[in-house]
Amino acid sequence: MPDRPADGIIASPASPDLHVLARAMEQLPHGILVFEGPDHVVVGANRTARAFLGDRPGILGRPVREMFPEGAGQNLLGRVDYVYATGEPFTAKEWRIQVDGHVDGEDRHVDFDLVPMHADGGTISGVAVQFVDVTAAVRRRRSVEADTAELLERYEAAQDEVLSLQRTLLPDGLPVLPGMRIAAHYLVAGAEQAAGGDWFEAVALDGTAAVMVGDVVGHGSAAAAVMAQLRAVLVEFLLDGDDLDSVLARLDGFAGRVPGARGATVCIALVQPDGAVRYVCAGHPPPLVVSIDGAARYLPAPGGGPLGVAGPGPTVGTATLAAGDLLLCYSDGLVERPSQDLTVGLTELADVASAAMRRGPASTMSADATDRVAELTVERMTRHGYHDDVTVLALRLTGQVVPDFVSEVPAEPGRLSVLRQGLEAWLTELGVGETDIASIEIAVLEAATNSVEHAYPDGGGTVRVEGQLDGQGRVCMSVIDRGRWRPAPADPGHRGRGLMMMRGCMDTVEIDDTPNGTALLLDRRLRREPVLSPALVSASATPRPSTMSVTRTTAAEPRIALGGPIDLSTAVDLRRELWSASRGGALSLVVDLGSVTHLGSAGIQVLYDFVEDMIADGRSLRFVVPSTSPARHAIVLSDLDRIVPVSEE
Asked: Are residues 505 and 579 in the same domain?
C-alpha cells in the first residue's frame, strides 16, 4: 500500500517520481480533491483544497458528504454522483457554494472540473476534482459592474434633467390665428449627445405671425441655456415692435456678448394674413414653400452669416404666399447627411414635403394639411437615423376666413345642446385644440346656464352667444341675455360654482349688468401643442355625442359609466341613473366619467348631493376620471376630488 501523508496527497516511497508529483500537486495554486468509490471517500486533498475547506481535521478517509456536510442542498454533490455513475466529465464556471469556516462568512465562487478516474479494468473507481477559487475576481467584477450601473444611472438621470430642461425652455404652445394654421415637430438628438441647441417659436403680432427656427452650436445644458436666452430676447425684440432689420441687428449684438451664442443660426419669417412675407436667414437654410398642389420651392437665400461673427450682416428678403401655401422652416439636422452635400438633403426635403401635401397614409389624411406635412416630413426624413436635433415649424395660409360665431337660442335647458354643438363646430374649424375646446365649452355653457336659471325665472327669453378670434390668438366670447337676474342667496350651498368654473377655464371673465340685461365677457388665449417627440397626428376628432350615455355593470364592484354632456339639460337624468345604479344608496359604486365630454355646474351639483348622501349612509364611492378627460378639469375646479377618491382607472 502506498503511504498517505496525513491529510495530504497520495504518495509512494517506492517511486521517487511519484514523490515529485505529490510535492508538485501539493504546491499547486489550484485545489485538488480525489474521491474513491460510490461513497466518494476522500483519498487525496492538496494544500490549496485543505485551506479552501478551512483546514478542517480528518479530511482523508471520510465520505465527502460527511467531510463536507454543508454541501448538501447546493446541487454540488449530486454532480459528483452523476460523473461517477456516467463517466461524463462536468465543468462549471463561477459556481457559488457555501463553505463553513471562512472568516468573512461570505459564499465562495469557484471554477471546477469533475473527471472520472478509471481502474486498470476500465471501470470507474472514483472522481477527481480540480478547482480554482475565483471569489475575489467575481467580487471585483461585480463591484465594477455596480459602479458602472451607478454611473450609468447618474448619466441617464443627468440626460433626463437636460432633456426636461430643454423641454421647459421650448414653447409650450403655438398661437391659433385667423386664416392660418401652425404646427411644430421637434426631435431630440441621440442619447449620447443629449439635448441640443435647436429651438423654435411662433408669436402673434397683431394679426401677423412671426415664426422662427434657430440652432446653437453644441449640445447639453450649456447649449440649451444659450438657446433659451436667444429665443427669449428675440421674442422680446419682436414684441417691442421693431422692424426685422432692427431685430436682427439687436440679436446679432446680443449674440456677440453671450459666450456660446456666437455662430448660432436663425431663420425668422413674418407672415401677414394677405400672404406677404418678410424673412431673414442668418447662416440658416432658407424656408421651403409648398403650394396646395404640391409644387415646392425654396425662397431665395437673402444672404448673411451666423450671429455674433464678423462678416456681412443678414439681409431681409420678401415673398408672397398664395392661399393654401405652406411655409416650412427647419433646422439643418433635418437635411444634413454624413459625407453628402447639403443639396442632397434639401432636394429630399422638397420631395418629401411635396408628397406629404398631396397625399399621405389614411391615418393622417383626416388631419389638417399643416399637421400632416410636419409629421410626415419629420418621420420620412429621419427614417435612416439622424445625428442632430431635428426641428420643423410649418405655417399654412388656410385660404378661408372663418366667420365670427353667433348663436341665439331659447333660454331653455334642452336647447343648450344645440349651442354646444354649434360652438364646438366653430372652434374645430378655427383649428382650436381639444384642451382649449373643453375649457371654452365649460365656460360658455356655464354662462348660458346662469342666464337660463337666473335671468328668466318665469320662462321665455333667449340667450345670445357671440365669439371671435382676434389677431393676438385670443377667443373672445360674449354671453348676453335680456332678463333680470335674481339676487344671489347669502348661502348658496354647493350652488354658485358656475362663476368659479368660468374663471378657472378662461383668462378673464367680466360681468356687465345693465337694466336691459346681463353680458358675460370671456376670453382665452389659444395654444396648439407642438409635438416634442415622434408621434402620429391624431385624426379628426369624432363628433361628440349630444346626449348623455349610461352603461352599467354589476360585477363584484358595481359600476356606472357615463358619457356625453352632463349639464342643466341632463342633470335630472344623471340623478336618477346614479340612484338606480346604487339601488337607492344601498350599494357602493364606481362612477366612470372618462367619456364625459362636458361637465357643467348643474352636473357638479348632482354629484355633490350624491356624494354627501352616500357618505352619510356609509357607502364607499369612487370616481374614475382620466387626466385627459374634459370632466377632470371640472372635478378639480369644484374640489370634488378632495372629498371622494378619484383615480385614472
From this structure: no
Taken in order 492, 494, 497, 500, the sign of the CA dihedral is positive
* Sequential DSSP letters for 378-405: HHHHTTT--SS-EEEEEEEE-S--PPPE
- 589, amino acid identity: L
**Are residues 512 and 560 part of one domain?**
no
Q: How far apart are the first and last CA of the chain?
A: 81
Q: Higher model confidence: residue 620 or residue 103?
A: 620
Same domain, 219 and 310: yes
Residue 244 has pLDDT above 50, yes or no: yes
Instruction: Report how many domains make up the chain.
Output: 4
Mean pLDDT of the chain: 84
- Per-residue pLDDT band for 623 (boundaries 50, 70, 90) equals very high
Tell me, what amino acid is at 46?
N
Residue 366 and residue 360: Cα distance in Å, rounded? Answer: 10
Name beta bridge partners: 561: 551, 592
Q: Amino acid identity of 333?
A: G
3-state DSSP assignment of residue 243: coil
Residue 582 has pLDDT above 90, yes or no: no
Among 343, 371, 397, the domain boundary falls at: 397
pLDDT number for residue 192: 44
Query: Are residues 380 and 272 part of one domain?
Result: yes
Q: Is residue 157 part of a domain?
A: no
What is the per-residue pLDDT for 193? Answer: 46
Q: Are residues 299 and 425 in the same domain?
A: no
**pLDDT for res 152:** 65
Lookup: cell for 106: 461570505
Model confidence pTM above 0.70: no
Residue 487 has pLDDT above 70, yes or no: no
Find the length of the chain: 649
Q: Are residues 458 and 314 in the same domain?
A: no
Residue 25 lies in a domain: yes
Taking CA atoms, 618 is separated from 412, 506, 577, in Å, by 37, 38, 20
pLDDT tens digits for range 400-436: 889 999 999 998 888 888 999 999 999 999 999 888 9
Which one, of 563, 543, 544, lies nearest residue 552 by Cα?
A: 563
The enclosing domain of 387 has a CATH number of: 3.60.40.10
CATH classification of the domain holding 80? 3.30.450.20
Check which CATH number belongs to the domain holding 506 and give it.
3.30.565.10
369 shares its domain with 229: yes
The answer to whether residue 584 scores a pLDDT higher than 80 is: no
Domain of residue 636, CATH code: 3.30.750.24
Which residue range(s) make up the domain with 96? Answer: 16-133
Position 508 in a domain: yes
Residue range 131-179, pLDDT digits in tens: 999 988 988 888 888 877 776 666 555 555 555 555 566 787 899 999 9
Are residues 350 and 298 in contact, defined by beta-carbon separation less than 8 angstroms? yes
Q: In 3D, which of 594, 584, 602 has the Cα closest to residue 562?
A: 594
Region for residue 116 given its phi and psi (left: phi exceeds 0; alpha: psi -120 to 50; beta: otherwise): beta
The DSSP result for 305-343, as a single string, is --TTSSSPPP-EEEEEPPTT-EEEEE-GGGT--TTS-HH
Give the 3-state secondary structure of 107-168: CEEEEEEEEEEECCCCCEEEEEEEEEECHHHHHHHHHHHHHHHHHHHHHHHHHHHHHHHHHH
229: in domain: yes
Residue 144 in grid coordinates: 465594477
Measured CA to CA, the distance from residue 214 to residue 212 in angstroms comes to 7
Band of residue 440 on the pLDDT scale cut at 50, 70, 90? very high
Do 513 and 479 sit in the same domain of this protein? yes
